Amino acid sequence: MKAREVMTGTPYYCQPETNLGSATELMWNANCGFLPVETADGKVIGMVTDRDICIALGTRGRSSGDVTVAELMSSKLCSCTPDDDIHVALQTLRDGRVRRLPVIGPDGSLIGVISIDDILLRAEPASLGKEPELSSDEVVRTFQAITQRQVPVVVRKQAAVG
Q1: Confidence band (pLDDT; 50, 70, 90) for 75?
Q2: Residues 6+ apart with CB under 8 A from 130
Q3: How many helices (H) and strands (E) does the chain have?
Q4: Distance between CA atoms of 12 and 27, rounded to whole angstroms?
Q5: CB of 92 closer than 8 Å to CB of 80
Q6: Are the CB atoms for 37 and 69 separated by under 8 Å?
Q7: How far apart are CA 78 and CA 58, in angstroms?
Q8: Torsion of CA 75, 41, 51, 115, to 10 degrees
Q9: Across the chain, which distance is largest between two alpha carbons, in Å?
Q10: What global pTM score does this model have?
Q11: Which segments within 75-123 are labelled E, that is strand?
């Protein structure tokens, strides 16, 4: 199974200069929790999530119209290509600890989006004598890896002697 078989085509996206009010409205209209960020020439350069927007608006003391996506977008881009095997996409989700991937063409343009929800809907349980192409067990393991909490390491300060 290829990523193109699972992805949602014609995804919504925004640009770095898009303000957070407009980005939020796009997410609301698309019923999605993230937007890939594209340059004017159509190259995907990052992404912004509903969580990013919420935290930014709660901590910056500015209105949504005064903060741009560029100020808070993640430029760490986890993505896949339409021809990637779905297991490669699952590994990318696990490695990046993300729930959504932009599907990017060879020219860097946005072709679609794959979410863990899209993958879950295509998963099948293992049955006697038949190994599914995309097992529900593998999807569950991926979701567990993505959502596993990482507790920050607290380092005790030590006084310099001497």
Answers
A1: confident
A2: none
A3: 6, 5
A4: 8
A5: yes
A6: yes
A7: 26
A8: -90
A9: 70
A10: 0.81
A11: 100-104, 110-115
